[in-house]
Structure formats: structure tokens, C-alpha cells
């Protein structure tokens, strides 16, 4: 059959058998998203199936149903992309959405072959029509999945960065920044930006940066660290570095890093005492 004959035949069959087809497609949706999965209720399943039938009917009845750049086909792509996004948000998985699309294709072909009386081996043009379209629709599902996955990873990465470098106001005007783990250049720049914003917001007068949890440091990160100290000082705050390991100290010396004007203390406790001293705060043990 020619393309025009295929579309005309499909249009006629859809018009005559729309009720039967809708019922079969609704059962397909119930199998994947209802029943045990409980991702959709009965009203949503009915609406989903009705929307798909309307969209596929609109494509088949369009001026050029074989054209995958038509508004009707883009509407179908949006339908499956939206479905994939909705199921992922509800705890479903992309495999079920793909299997649902594949089953829709199978059921459509089976229903149309049954009603048309055309044998499976003699309906290659019909099979090709649906196969080409559904391949593209399944690609739209995977594109949605990959996009959602990327957004999730970015959100998790941002959350991890935020929680891995907590900036805490330990006292009025005194901030602490414990740095744990690997301190690479990108992370150092992010920490610096967050720290300077926090200094401006809280009008901090002293910042204690604790490196107890940092095991390794390279020349580029060392320079960034000193830049961070200078930036804190330019903001009008005192910068105090604590908890430098012997390995870090040796690395800084061997790299000829200029530490003049940088206040260091052995521990976080000593660093806090220094910060309080500079603010004129006296801390002492309470006698019983």
C-alpha cells in the first residue's frame, strides 16, 4: 500500500472501531500503572487512554501522518515525555513507560489487523508506519528520563557541596568553616563564594577555617586558599586557619606559598579562642 492508502485505511478503521480500541488501550494502561503498581487511579487511566486515542487519531487524520515534524506528532512526543516525567516523580521507572509504549503499538496493530482482515504478513506498510513513529516516541521517553536524571544529579551535587562545607555562626560575629575531604579548585571557589556572601550577610568580624579534615592539597588549591584568606580580610574580617596537618604544612612550605599575615592555630578550639580574643570576649571556666 502507498502512504496515502495506509493513512486513509487507518483513518477509516479508527473511525469505525474507536470504542474497541479505546477499551483495549485503557486495559493496557491499567496493567502498567494501575493494579499492583498503584501509580494511577481509574480516572487517571481513563483520561490517559482517552488522550492517547485522540492524539493518535489526530496524527493519522492529519494532512501528512508520516511526517514526524508535524504538530500532531510533537503532541504525541509531549504526551509520552509528560507521562515519563509523571511516573518518575511518583516512584515509577522508565522501563514501565517504555513497555507501555511498546504494548500500545502491539495492541494498535493487533486491533487494526483484526478489524481490517489483513493478514499480518501483508500489512508491512501499516507495521512500518507504527514502528517508525513509536521508535521516535520511545526515544522521547528516554530523553525525558536522561534529563530528569541529570537534574536529579545536579540537585544532589549542589546539596552535597552545601552540606560538606557548612558555615556556622558560632558566636555573634564569629563564623566557623570546617572543610572536610578533598579540596579541589572548583570546590575551593564555591566555598569562597559562599563564605564571602555569609560574611556580608552576618557582618562577621572573624572567620575560623578548620582544615583538620583535609588530607591533601596541591599548588593551585594552596593559592586559592590564600586568596580566600585575603578575600576574607578585604571584607573586613579576621581570617584564622586551624588544623593544618604536617603533610599540608610541608606542602605549603615546599610550594613557597606566602603565609605572611595569615594567622594559624593548631586546633579549632585554639582558633576560636583567638577569634574571641580579637573581639574582646573573655572565655573562662565557671567555678562550681
Biggest beta sheet summary: 5 strands, mixed
Helix-and-strand structural type: alpha/beta
List the secondary-structure elements in sequence, H or E: HHHHHEEHEHEHEH
Distance N to C terminus: 99 Å
Using only C-alpha atoms, the radius of gyration works out to 32 Å
Biggest sheet strand order reads: 1-2-3-4-5
Range of strand content: 5-15%
The CATH topology of the largest domain is given as Globin-like
How many structural domains can be distinguished in the coordinates? 2
Shape: elongated
Number of helices: 9
Output the CATH class name of the largest domain: Mainly Alpha
Brief descriptors of the model:
single chain; Transcription Regulator spoIIAA; elongated
Descriptive report:
By secondary structure, the chain is an alpha/beta fold. It has 2 domains: 3-160, Globin-like (Orthogonal Bundle), CATH 1.10.490; 168-278, STAS domain (Transcription Regulator spoIIAA, 2-Layer Sandwich), CATH 3.30.750. Helix content is 65%, strand content 9%. It has 9 helices and 5 strands. Strands 1-2-3-4-5 form a 5-stranded mixed β-sheet, sandwiched between helices. The protein is elongated. The chain starts with a helix and ends in a 10-residue tail after the last helix. The relative contact order is 0.08. The model has no long low-confidence stretch (mean pLDDT 81).
